[in-house]
User: Which sequence fits this backbone?
């Protein structure tokens, strides 16, 4: 028969203690906000006591961020340093967080004040479901009107350009296409990597529909499908596949290749930029929105304005190799300058059927995966 | 004399069983069933409300067929590999059995997207498989995609779902039957097929079912390997066409429930063991067969563990050499990961055990419904389950204030992974021989003491194995952790996901290696050391 097992009990107890310690100790600010946020619509006694007179707690702001922690936490820390306002962040996939916000909002229990999205598609989804508040005019005025929502519900704070990443050992520079439309030529058969279910690809196709019309776009999608492209789940997977030589070229956002080369400088991959007026060179914005139902709209706006300040914009240019979107900010040193008037930007509101129509067209063309 | 005893005991057992009111007996499984079936009910209700199931069918039918093909292939292969390896590592004199028992479980610990990515990297120039093939003059395939690729990778990462419960079953399988069979002249193979296998059947079926459910609800691996299944429909349309997304999730769920029902009907009436194992069995001598057996173990561990670890190591080493990454940032996530996983495992076993007792000792429609509900929690794609639980928590007045807190997160793990403890727990309950329970009743009237001194020690290998599976699943869980955890809470899985998503492969590699080491440590310390098998 068995003897008692003090070790098992000890390990379990240790686990429980350390869990409580992690949850409460490592990040005392998160505790404040979760209390505060949990209170939802009711008045939170704790926050009222913490300083501001009966109004909402302005010492902190909560973000749901579809943008990666490594790419944005440093600038959020700078915001805290500059303003004394704590920032609490839940990281996740933009589309998943948008779905969660939608459900929270439906239950009248919104946790976050700000949503940062990698994809305009997720912002468009929340706008359509009326989950976003209108941004103040002075915030909206910081960027060109082409990179913000017409209704003022969201604003772009950094941009990634669509490019063709290619394997420098398998593709000669002279061979590279001058337009994304050339990829339907038979010479590219079996050589292209795409991410049909990825947000950026869908945003890019949506932009093409806006500038070229549904018919031209459908024709291009069918031509692309006829060339038997290889499907990947996302941009980074395409860049890795191009680096391995699994495919020769891939349709991606520009900055993944810089990241890949930082990870492995020997990888034989490079970006090919289409001309600015080509649909293949469209700018995909990373956008910010204030959530409907937040009780801290002014702090939320303050945070978004900080992302668009020279400090914030140069952070994105220098650290994430992205295009700054605030008016007057120069692009990163290693990127060609961008003519905002010429480069297309995704505009859902002009399109019948929006993103779902785009997805359906991609599926109907036979691009899947 | 024995007849008299049995009859007497049966009468006694009637007396004792009457102590638990029939209402309570049904109420506990029903209450557990209600909690576990919440997410599934939500998914079906939402699908019904969005009302697109019939229009969506033509977008669903092809992926459904591909999903079924893959799941059948993977679960059948995993059943063979898992059972074979369990037999080799528990019943034979395979060299290095203890080592293999830990190592062969580890392929389970990697999130499937990172496992698949690391495996693919192994095939690329500079990768371990590519270079190994090159050294013997074979060109590695340029692309590794499709059904075959998904079959290989998913099998390599899921066979431990069969291995662990079957190993636990071997630990308390009466050895005397095997020994008598062999003494009567049956070869060891014939003994295995005719005597051992029938006794293992529930454990094998239960484990294969988990593999089936894992495969139908996996997204990360199949997506990377370019094999288009139903989960791709769920994910690709989750924002743009929610009706279609929910319809696809419902089809996954219905398929899974059908298979669960089939498995439970095939399992047959479970007989409790006639007697408890009181002595270890003499291991079967492999002789010359030790070499092929070792080769088999090496190949399986090679595909499921060595290849991914080599790729992850290459990634991590680049970052470490340049000082871009370090272990410091991983300390908090490691502690969090270990804590929630162990707690989830303990809670899951506690919750599932009453169901296992009900299905095994007092089968009834309510106990079967509870079992199906528990297993159904694993049949929902992770993201859909996380969203379902978010909606249920947000809209239940008593629960909404617990939204995004650790208790709800633990509850999510238990609902999602409780199924993994069920098959092993049922084996555990069966391991308590009826005659022992009867004599226990005569000798020790106090139910609690009897439970601790008779039942629990005999159940321990099965319960620990079941808890071990829950722990290993929780260690790598992603969607529920991302959506339902308190703000600022991170685990190794969320670190791996975040860095992988953006192509920070060095950080992905390091966090994954830490996850593997943590899993190995916890598996050894908490599962294998206490499940008795290691001592044999």
Assistant:
């Amino acid at each position: 028969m068995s003897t008692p097992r003090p070790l098992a009990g000890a390990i379990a107890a240790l686990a429980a203690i350390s869990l409580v310690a992690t949850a409460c100790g490592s990040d005392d600010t998160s505790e404040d906000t979760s209390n505060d946020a949990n209170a939802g619509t009711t008045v939170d006694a704790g926050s009222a006591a913490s300083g501001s007179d009966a109004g909402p707690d302005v010492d902190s702001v909560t973000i749901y961020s579809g943008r990666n922690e490594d790419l944005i936490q440093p600038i959020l820390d700078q915001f805290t340093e500059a303003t004394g306002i704590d920032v609490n962040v839940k990281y996740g996939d933009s589309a998943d967080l948008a779905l969660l916000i939608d459900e929270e909002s439906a239950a009248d229990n919104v946790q976050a004040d700000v949503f940062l999205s990698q994809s305009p598609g997720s912002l468009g989804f929340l706008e359509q479901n009326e989950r976003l508040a209108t941004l103040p005019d002075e915030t909206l005025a910081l960027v060109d009107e082409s990179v913000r929502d017409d209704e003022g519900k969201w604003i772009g704070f950094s941009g990634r350009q669509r490019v063709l990443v290619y394997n420098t050992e398998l593709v000669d520079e002279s061979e590279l296409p001058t337009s994304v439309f050339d990829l339907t030529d038979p010479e590219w058969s079996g050589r292209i990597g795409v991410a049909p279910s990825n947000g950026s690809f869908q945003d890019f196709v949506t932009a093409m529909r806006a500038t070229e019309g549904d018919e031209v776009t459908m024709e291009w999608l069918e031509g692309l499908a006829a060339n038997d492209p290889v499907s990947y789940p996302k941009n980074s997977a395409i860049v890795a596949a191009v680096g391995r030589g699994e495919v020769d070229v891939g349709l991606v956002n520009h900055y993944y290749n810089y990241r890949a080369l930082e990870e492995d400088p020997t990888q034989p991959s490079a970006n090919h930029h289409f001309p600015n007026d080509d649909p293949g060179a469209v700018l995909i914005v990373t956008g910010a929105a204030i959530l409907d139902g937040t009780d801290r709209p002014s702090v939320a706006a303050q945070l978004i304005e900080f992302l668009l300040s020279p400090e914030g914009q140069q952070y994105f240019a220098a650290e994430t190799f992205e295009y700054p979107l605030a008016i007057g900010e120069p692009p990163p040193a290693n990127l060609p300058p961008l003519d905002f008037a010429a480069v297309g930007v995704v505009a859902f509101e002009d399109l019948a059927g929006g993103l779902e129509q785009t997805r359906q067209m991609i599926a109907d063309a036979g691009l899947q995966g | 004399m024995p007849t008299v005893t049995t009859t007497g005991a049966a009468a006694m057992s009637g007396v004792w069983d009457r102590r638990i009111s029939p209402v309570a007996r049904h109420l506990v499984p029903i209450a557990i069933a209600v909690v576990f079936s919440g997410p599934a009910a939500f998914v079906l209700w939402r699908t019904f409300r969005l009302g697109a199931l019939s229009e969506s069918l033509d977008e669903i039918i092809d992926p459904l067929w591909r999903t079924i093909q893959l799941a059948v292939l993977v679960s059948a292969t995993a059943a063979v590999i898992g059972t074979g390896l369990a037999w080799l590592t528990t019943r034979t004199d395979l060299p290095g059995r203890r080592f293999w028992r830990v190592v062969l479980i580890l392929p389970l610990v990697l999130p499937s997207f990172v496992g698949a990515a690391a495996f693919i990297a192994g095939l690329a120039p500079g990768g371990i498989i590519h270079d190994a093939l090159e050294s013997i003059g074979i060109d590695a395939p340029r692309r590794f995609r499709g059904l075959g690729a998904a079959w290989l990778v998913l099998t390599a990462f899921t066979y431990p779902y069969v291995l662990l419960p079957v190993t636990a079953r071997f630990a308390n399988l009466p050895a005397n039957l095997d020994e008598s069979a062999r003494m009567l002249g049956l070869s060891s193979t014939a003994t295995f097929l005719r005597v051992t296998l029938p006794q293992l059947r529930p454990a094998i079926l239960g484990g294969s079912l988990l593999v089936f459910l894992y495969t139908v609800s996996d997204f990360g691996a199949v997506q990377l390997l370019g094999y288009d299944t139903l989960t791709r429909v769920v994910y690709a349309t989750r924002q743009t066409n929610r009706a279609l997304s929910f319809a696809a999730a419902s089809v996954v769920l219905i398929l899974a429930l059908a298979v669960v029902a089939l498995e439970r009907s095939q399992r047959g009436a479970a007989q409790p063991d006639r007697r408890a194992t009181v002595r270890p069995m003499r291991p079967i001598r492999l002789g010359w067969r030790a070499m092929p057996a070792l080769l088999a173990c090496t190949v399986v561990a090679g595909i499921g563990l060595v290849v991914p670890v080599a790729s992850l190591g290459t990634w991590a080493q680049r970052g470490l050499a340049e000082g871009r990454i370090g272990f410091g940032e991983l300390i908090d996530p490691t502690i969090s990961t270990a804590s929630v996983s162990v707690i989830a495992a303990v809670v899951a076993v506690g919750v599932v055990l009453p169901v296992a007792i009900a299905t095994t000792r007092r089968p009834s429609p309510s106990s079967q419904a509870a079992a199906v509900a528990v297993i159904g929690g694993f049949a929902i794609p992770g993201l859909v389950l996380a969203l379902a639980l978010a909606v249920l928590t947000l809209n239940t007045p008593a629960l909404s204030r617990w939204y995004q807190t650790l208790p709800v997160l633990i509850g999510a793990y238990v609902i999602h992974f409780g199924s993994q403890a069920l098959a092993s727990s049922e084996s555990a309950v069966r391991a308590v021989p009826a005659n022992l329970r009867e004599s226990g009743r005569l000798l020790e009237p106090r139910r609690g003491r009897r439970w601790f001194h008779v039942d629990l020690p005999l159940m321990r290998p099965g319960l620990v194995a079941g808890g071990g599976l829950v722990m290993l699943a929780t260690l790598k869980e992603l969607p529920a952790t991302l959506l339902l955890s308190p703000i600022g809470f991170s685990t190794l899985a969320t670190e791996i996901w975040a860095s992988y998503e953006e192509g920070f492969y060095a950080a992905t590699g390091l966090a994954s290696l830490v996850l593997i080491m943590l899993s190995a440590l916890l598996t050894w310390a908490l599962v294998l050391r206490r499940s008795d098998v290691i001592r044999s």
